[in-house]
Amino acid sequence: MILGIAFKFPDMIFERFLKTAREFLSNEEIVIFVSNPTGEARDIFKQYNASLVEVDSANYHLQTWRYVLYERYLSEVNPEFVFLTDVRDVVFQGDIFSKLKKLTFDQCFFQEGKLIRDCETNSLWIKEGFGDDLYGKVLDEPIICSGTTFGTLNGIMEYLKIINQVAPKIMSKNLSRPDGIDQGIHNALIRSGAFKNYKIFSNDNGPIITLQYAEHKINNRGFVTNLSGSVPEVAHQIDRMPREMINQIGKLRSFPVIDLIATRNIIEGRDALDFSGLDI
Q: CA quadruple 159, 161, 164, 166: dihedral positive or negative?
């Protein structure tokens, strides 16, 4: 099962995410929590045989609340494996389930291409959430991305229960940057031994490439590759790529990318295109 959440996003995001997922995962159940979906969004979900779960986002911190939604939902279903993933900036490039379900780990985590100490934001999340002592123990470790996590049902439920126990305590602190704090929690828990039977995959040659700090290329089919030329099963943070690469991927794989160009424009300090309700 694939679980994600998408609030205040243009419908083209669902088209891109579901289209690329179904290229490689025809039988996996896909469930996405959506706030105020349009009729077009509902049609896209039907087209790709995916489940849209409508939820109200009012008065919640989305990046931590999603873990509560996931735990509640999974407590009532029984998939063998679960892939928790961001939606807006993810494209599928292969069958990540076939790649990982033969392993014997409860959780699979995925690094980014930078050390915690070299990222001011990730450092801040851990310092403010967990203190300088823990930060001193983990600062030389690579960042682990909280936007993608894979595991067995029991492993993911264990992960969600612990996250949901810790997050309210961290959120009650006077945080200078609460947005994204789930990544600080994610890294602190993993690096401090909260989980026992897990594997952390490198960003250089793992099944997911997270592009914020990754060196990468585009092959002639429009797939993101690592420097060795191999194709990871999932490309994450594709909006962090140069606009020319984003355009190239969209053309070669025939899916919309104009929303990602708008995001890239903001990152580069350019005027963004106008998307009503675009949450970036």
A: negative
Q: How far apart are CA 78 and CA 62, in angstroms?
A: 25
Contact (Cβ atoms closer than 8 angstroms) between residue 264 and residue 243: yes
Phi and psi (nearest 5°) for 165?
A: -75, -40
**CB 38 within 8 Å of CB 11:** yes
Q: What's the DSSP call for residue 242?
A: -
Give SS3 for 217: strand
pLDDT of residue 59: 57
pLDDT score of 277: 43
The whole-angstrom separation of Cα 150 and Cα 198 is 10
Please state, in angstroms and rounded to a whole number, the distance separating the CA atoms of residues 159 and 87: 20
66, 59 contact by CB (below 8 A):
no
Query: Does the pLDDT at position 114 exceed 60?
Result: yes
- In the structure encoding, which two tokens stand for residue 184, read together? 């600080």
Q: Which two tokens stand for residue 90?
A: 């993810």
Phi–psi pair at 49, nearest 5 degrees: 55, 50
Q: Which residues pair with 210 in a beta bridge?
A: 236
Strands 234-236 and 90-92: antiparallel
For residue 243, the Cα-to-chain-centroid distance in whole angstroms is 20
Question: Which amino acid is residue 183, in one-letter code?
Answer: Q
What is the residue whose two structure tokens read 């450092």? 123
* DSSP 8-class letter at 239: G
Look up residue 272 and give its DSSP letter: P
Specify whether the CB–CB gap between 2 and 85 falls below 8 A.
yes
Nearest Cα neighbor of 145 from 236, 66, 261, 53 is 236
The helix (run of H) or strand (run of E) holding residue 147 is strand 142-152
DSSP 55-113: ---TTS-HHHHHHHHHHHHHTT---SEEEEE-STTEEE-S-HHHHHTTS--SEEEEEEE
Q: pLDDT tens digits, residue range 98-107? A: 999 999 999 9
